[in-house]
Amino acid sequence: MYTIDISLKTTLSGHQNPIFALSEGLDASSIFSAGNDKGVVEWDLETGVFKRIVCAVPASVYCLHLVPELSLLLVGMRNGEIWCVDVVRQQLIKKMNVERGAIFAISTLTEKREIIAIGEEGVAYVWSLDSFDLLYRFTVSNTTVRTIQPYRNNKQLVFGDKDGYIYLYDVADFKQIEKRKIHHMPVTAVAVSDLHLYTGGRDAKLYQLQQKDLSVVRELTPHLFTVYSILPHPHLPIIATVSRDKSIKIWDSTSLALLKNISLERGYDSHRLSINTAMWIEDKLVTAGDDKLLKVWDVSLISK
């Protein structure tokens, strides 16, 4: 048996508006953040200081995705544009866009050398990672899609839409394999571990699903309001979730037993408004939200 030890390492301040998106940096000491500030910021996690504004952007940023081997940061925005920014040279390489609506999710299909993005219109767009040419365009849903998550085998990927449906697609030809209604309200978070698929929604539910057919293994209500991020740890058997209810929770990844509840009410110097996004950087959990702050938490397991 084990318990979780979590402590606040540092708070990063400087954003003037809510933060919606985080991305890993080129090494474990840095991270990128963006939101309503109309700029993408890089931070130093070790010293806890602002490093630079990577680029100014014309609209709110809803998602960030780093392609480390190319030093390329993909920036998805409310105006339907995706900017491809070389973060080493601090240079805009390419602008891409969808036909209408905001971009809510971006990922890369590394084996196919492709970028995939989706958003407000429920249509997925696929570009070449080498030439940035548009390769495919296909409709996933007739409503908004906020999440993309490739499986770790890189052979399938899932989407989650505003009506609570989860869609499983084949990466090779983008054919739908399975569609299942999981949530009663919009899907707002999707994550995969080696064994399971996890989904969270505006209905405050968390589901553990079988990857192959999307059947439900476990269901719980982890938060009072929307689940905005589900984060399997890179190597420990735990999952973190964050929510509009301002709390961070740590769960056993198999049983979904609650291991730790982090919030102001529990005595932690945590967020005072909605936590919109989070990510693991090695054993550090980074959270950010409407209070314009990033908080960096040290997390470890303690054997009983």
UniProtKB/TrEMBL annotation:
Q: What are the alphabetically sorted keywords of the record?
A: Repeat, WD repeat
Q: Which domain of life is it from?
A: Bacteria
The record's annotation in InterPro entries points to: WD40/YVTN_repeat-like_dom_sf, WD40_PAC1, WD40_repeat_CS, WD40_repeat_dom_sf, WD40_rpt
- Residue ranges of coiled coil: none
Q: Where are the WD repeats?
A: 12-48, 220-261, 268-304
SUPFAM superfamilies in the cross-refs = WD40 repeat-like
- Protein name, as recorded: WD40 repeat-containing protein
Q: Which organism is it from?
A: Sphingobacterium deserti
